[in-house]
């Protein structure tokens, strides 16, 4: 842990404090400008923030951190983006453990408290009731009771919550969420066609699903058939031997990005994961786990 690392951590903590501020002062009710705004001329609503670059109002006392944009580069609708908050909660607690071992007891305690507060906010405000699936994680919330129910292929995502270390694969609310986001009636961006199916997102449009979502689906499943189907689907549309960004669900040879480093990295991660957990899927009956230390 170098001085530069500690300086970066200080910057991060200051940023978290700034982005934890609500839209209105909790004492006076007066509007308070966020330190980060983004506004530009565009014909795409996902490319800018509403309300003169401030984004939609966020409530006080949630413990959550604001995200102006999603991992897909699309603007959030409701600024408390749950997957990123879940990831931040986990990483703050991991950093706390590391700092404690380095003898930074006070700083370690601060990060542990921050992580716990965000985690509490996710469970209190990020879990909502779905009429079919019961309690599920929302994609975005505002702390006032509004929520967005969907998932996007980009990481962090709701589908990837176990990979982030926030919940186990068999967590009941995660499983409810998983069922919701992997069906068309539960997730508006679960796209299915003659050539391909999977989770997409507004970044590319309403006819392109992302192979990356199927790779995450495989890593968060213990079902052999589901894993095999996901890997086979990705293989069928990887015409250049590499993983594309997105695939047109009706025309499998219509894709974006001939190679996409992010998705290729997730593919490598997936193969190593399956080789360790389910070696018989890759190596055949009797295959031994392949573990990279």
From TrEMBL:
Transmembrane segments: none
Organism superkingdom: Eukaryota
Biological process annotations from GO: carbohydrate metabolic process
Signal peptide range: 1-20
Keywords from the UniProt entry: Hydrolase, Signal
GO molecular function: hydrolase activity
InterPro entries the UniProt entry points to: 6-hairpin_glycosidase_sf (IPR008928), 6hp_glycosidase-like_sf (IPR012341), GH125 (IPR008313)
Keyword Transferase carried by entry: no
Name of the protein in question: Glycoside hydrolase family 125 protein
Pfam family, one: Glyco_hydro_125
């Amino acid at each position: 842990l170098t001085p530069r690392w500690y300086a970066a951590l200080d910057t991060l903590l200051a940023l978290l404090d700034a982005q934890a501020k609500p839209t209105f002062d909790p004492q006076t009710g007066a509007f308070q400008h966020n330190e980060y705004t983004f506004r530009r001329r565009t014909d795409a609503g996902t490319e800018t923030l509403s309300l003169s670059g401030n984004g939609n109002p966020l409530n006080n006392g949630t413990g959550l951190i604001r995200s102006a944009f999603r991992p897909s580069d699309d603007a959030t609708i409701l600024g408390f983006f749950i997957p990123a908050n879940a990831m931040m909660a986990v990483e703050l607690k991991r950093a706390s453990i590391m700092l404690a071992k380095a003898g930074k007891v006070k700083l370690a305690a601060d990060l542990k408290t921050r992580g716990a507060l965000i985690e509490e906010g996710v469970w209190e405000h990020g879990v909502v009731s779905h009429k079919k699936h019961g309690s599920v994680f929302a994609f975005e919330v505002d702390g006032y009771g509004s929520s967005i129910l969907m998932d996007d292929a980009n990481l962090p995502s709701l589908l990837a919550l176990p990979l982030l270390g926030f919940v186990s694969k068999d967590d009941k609310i995660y499983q409810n969420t998983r069922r919701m986001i992997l069906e068309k009636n539960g997730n508006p961006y679960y796209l299915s066609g003659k050539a391909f199916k999977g989770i997409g997102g507004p970044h590319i449009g309403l006819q392109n699903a992302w192979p990356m979502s199927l790779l995450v689906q495989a890593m968060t499943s213990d079902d052999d058939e589901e894993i095999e189907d996901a890997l086979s689907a990705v293989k069928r549309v990887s015409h250049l031997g590499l993983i594309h960004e997105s695939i047109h669900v009706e025309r499998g040879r219509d894709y974006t990005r001939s190679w996409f480093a992010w998705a290729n990295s997730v593919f490598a991660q997936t193969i190593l994961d399956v080789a360790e957990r389910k070696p018989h899927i890759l190596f055949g009956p009797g295959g031994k786990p392949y573990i990279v230390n």
